[in-house]
Design goal:
Layout lengths: L6 H12 L3 H8 L3 H8 L6 H11 L3 H7 L19 H8 L4 H13 L20 H10 L5 H11 L6 H8 L7 H11 L3 H8 L12 H13 L4 H15 L14
Helix pairs in contact: 2-3, 2-4, 4-5, 5-8, 6-9, 6-13, 6-14, 7-13, 7-14, 8-10, 9-10, 11-12
């Protein structure tokens, strides 16, 4: 699958991957088979169709909007863009905790009350969003990660060690996605690496091993923290650091497997 193949080809690949026919998807999504066929024939999908198709094909709705090159509705965006300061800290300290500590941190995030959205989420502009790198970086932005946040989160959760500015280059299409990058991005996004590679047109020379538990938990923490206000995210980040106790003296790069 190439980056310019269109959403219809992407959807066809997903149907094949899930072993679903057109009518199967239509029934699961609560849409008509003709609507699905129209998208497969390269008609641009509308918001309603994307919302219904996403859970039916096993993708997060916001990610499907991004892969389709469509504007992400406000209700699918992180609650508070100001929380981007704290999101990578939650990951950086949370991933250093033992498994029980990571589960507790996730429980705390989920237990916090849902606050009202007070501002519009505006991700940093990308010059080439249609580029496959732009789509992946946009997904990370919708996990409330800035360039610096991506640098910090990927550094502790995966073997990828890049400068903050390099994520901007990837997002604007000036640096190609490599198999290693796709595999590591997939781990932090909580997406199957083979699927992300196919959906972004990157060939993986071999099947990557599953991400370690620490990276799986990092992806879950990032995803769940999207619903937090900046004040709540700061509380969780401070809790994660306090849970590390005397060990909170620094960060180990590529912690999983060490």
């Amino acid at each position: 699958m190439t980056q310019d193949s269109g959403f219809g080809v992407l959807l066809a690949w997903l149907l094949d991957r899930r072993e679903l026919g057109v009518r199967d998807l239509a029934d699961r999504a609560g849409v008509t088979a003709d609507e699905v066929r129209a998208v497969l024939a390269r008609e641009a999908p509308g918001e309603r169709l994307l919302r219904r198709i996403a859970p039916a094909v096993g993708l997060r709705t916001v990610d499907l909007f991004i892969l389709a090159g469509s504007a992400v509705p406000e209700d699918l965006a992180p609650l508070d863009g100001a929380a981007e300061e704290w999101a990578p800290r939650i990951v950086s300290d949370g991933i250093h905790l033992p498994a029980a500590g990571r589960r507790e941190l996730l429980r705390v995030i989920r237990s916090l009350p849902q606050e009202e959205r007070l501002s519009v989420f505006v991700p940093k502009p990308l010059a080439a969003l249609a580029d496959r790198g732009g789509a992946v970086v946009r997904m990370l932005q919708y996990r409330n990660l800035s360039w610096t946040g991506m640098q910090r989160a990927l550094a502790v959760a995966t073997p990828t060690l890049l400068s903050a500015s390099t994520y901007g280059l990837i997002g604007s299409g000036r640096k190609e996605l490599s198999p290693r990058l796709v595999t590591d991005f997939a781990a932090v996004l909580g997406i199957d690496a083979l699927e992300l590679a196919a959906l972004t047109g990157v060939h993986l020379p071999e099947v990557p091993p599953p991400p370690p538990p620490e990276a799986v938990d990092a992806a879950a923490l990032l995803w769940e923290a999207r619903r937090l206000s900046a004040t709540q995210a700061r509380h969780v980040a401070e809790l994660a650091r306090s849970m590390r106790g005397d060990r909170a003296n620094g960060y180990i790069a590529n912690l999983p497997g060490t």
